[in-house]
Design goal:
Blueprint lengths: L2 H9 L4 H9 L1 E3 L5 E3 L4 H18 L6 H15 L9 E5 L6 E3 L4 E5 L9 H16 L2 H20 L7 H10 L8 H17 L5 H14 L6 H5 L4 H23 L14
Parallel strand pairs: 3-5
Antiparallel strand pairs: 1-2, 4-5
Helix pairs in contact: 1-2, 4-5, 5-8, 5-9, 6-7, 8-11, 9-11
Bound molecules: zinc ion.
Length: 271
């Protein structure tokens, strides 16, 4: 059952103030899926920026100018197509991890290890398109809201006078952190948003299939890429991407014909 659908049930046990909050938080994802967003974009964006700063204290940034230029080129072409207001910025971390992320404030991180798997600009666009998809669909906000709602519901079920603790519980939900796995529904949605986005920017969406196949192969006989711990490269995922191609290939060809022909250079193996 979706969060917004749970509201009626929970409201029987919750205060009127909480009900108002929940109704105000009802939103719709870019693909038309109802979602609950209780936090403001500013609040979640601030959490993203803080997380980005903490990550930079733990992991050194890459000084490889060519790699930085390549990543910024691909990220810039994608974010220009989002129509979403954020403080978009991309940085390359010097790390063997095969990983990448985008945070709610628009901060994009790529680990240099990603280029053990990513072979060209279109495959990088597939990874970043997916991560940016999580941002523009407000998936962190949605996850935090669902967590807070669950906590409030548990309290409301177990005690009277739940209203006074509601805001405290919402604060608790926000402290759980933002670098947690997304739901399968959100993963699937980010895939489709990312595929649309890369196509609009003039990156070949067929390379998304190759990318996930590369990820699968990188798993064989070794520790799986870190990216896969949250993003399983299973048959279902690849199948869904393939099924979307008839819709996205014309968008890609139209973008190319219209002059959107990104030329970000070659993916460089930093190893
Ligand atoms: Zn994801």
């Amino acid at each position: 059952m979706h969060a917004c659908c749970r509201i009626a049930k929970i409201s029987m046990a919750a205060s009127a103030a909480l009900l108002g909050l929940l109704l105000a938080g009802c939103a719709t994802s870019p693909l038309g899926r109802p979602q609950l967003k209780l936090y403001s974009d500013q609040t979640v964006g601030r959490m993203g920026l803080q997380t980005f700063q903490q990550l930079q204290k733990k992991t050194p940034l890459s000084t490889d100018a060519r790699l930085n230029a390549f990543v910024n080129c691909v990220a810039g072409q994608l974010t220009a197509q989002t129509g979403y207001r954020a403080n978009w910025q991309a940085k390359v971390f010097q790390s063997d991890e095969i990983n990448a992320f985008a945070l709610p404030g628009g901060e994009i991180g790529v680990y240099s290890g990603l280029f053990k798997v990513v072979e060209n600009q279109d495959q990088l666009a597939a990874v970043l398109g997916h991560e940016i998809g999580h941002v523009i669909a407000g998936h962190v906000n949605e996850r935090l809201s669902d967590q807070a709602l669950t906590q409030v519901a548990l309290t409301a079920a177990g005690a009277s006078g739940a209203g006074q603790g509601t805001m405290a519980l919402m604060g608790l939900g926000a402290q759980v952190g933002i670098l947690l796995p997304f739901s399968r529904t959100q993963e699937s949605e980010a895939d489709l948003i990312g595929l649309d986005l890369m196509s609009r920017a003039g990156f070949d969406p067929r390379q998304a299939v190759v990318l996930w196949q590369n990820m699968q192969q990188a798993t064989a006989g070794k520790a799986p890429p870190e990216l896969l711990s949250d993003h399983p490269a299973d048959a279902r995922r690849i199948q869904q991407i393939r099924a979307r191609l008839p819709q996205d290939l014309p968008i890609y060809r139209q973008a190319r014909a219209g002059g959107r022909q990104p030329d970000c250079g070659a993916a460089q193996h930093a190893h």
